[in-house]
Design goal:
This is Lachrymatory-factor synthase. With 168 residues, the chain is α+β, with helices and mostly antiparallel strands. It is built from 2 helices and 7 strands. It starts with 9 loop residues before the first strand and ends with a helix.
């Protein structure tokens, strides 16, 4: 990315395979920018701050997620404000940045994409961030990858229930 005199940005990638659900079924669940709390583990709050969900420039407030390196301060609630930078429904992809928060994710930008496959789909999550104090890149990779796996499991379960209700 940009040449910087500081430490280089961390870059990472996670992906989850969904067996069964088609990309066209999973995309609407991810496209709901203000609905992340339905899927991401330990995230208790996802509220609109400004704009319309799914429109570039909209901002969501996310709180309550547990991070792997928080320490033992149980009274602190993690939170971030996240801005949708771009969305491309035809490519089933969107990018967002963290614009504020108390977790030290400075310069965080992420792109999430749903990739069709023969029997299901993959969710691909790429991210970059300035090095985070008290974290390692391995911590961040684990946090995002494990969160994405739970998201995929929750989406598969929700789509199975939906399909079962349609079959009745």
């Amino acid at each position: 990315m940009a040449n910087d005199q500081h430490q280089p940005k961390w870059e990472g990638k996670a992906f989850a395979e969904l067996a069964g659900p088609k990309a066209e079924q999973v995309w609407p669940l991810l496209q709901d920018f203000f609905g992340l709390d339905k899927w991401f583990p330990t995230l208790t709050t996802c509220l609109p701050v400004e704009g319309v969900s799914g429109q570039p420039g909209c901002v969501r407030f996310c709180a309550g997620f547990k991070a792997p390196v928080n320490g033992s301060d149980e009274g602190t609630v993690n939170w971030t404000k996240q801005k949708l930078l771009s969305i491309d429904p035809s490519e089933m992809a969107f990018s967002y940045s963290i614009v504020d928060g108390n977790v030290g994710f400075n310069g965080y930008v992420s792109t999430v994409k749903v990739l069709p496959k023969e029997a299901g789909c993959d969710i691909d999550w790429k991210y970059e961030v300035e090095p985070v104090k008290g974290w390692t890149l391995k911590d961040l990779d684990f946090f995002i990858a494990s969160g994405l796996q739970v998201m995929a499991q929750r989406m598969e379960a929700a789509l199975r229930v939906f399909q079962a209700s349609m079959d009745q």
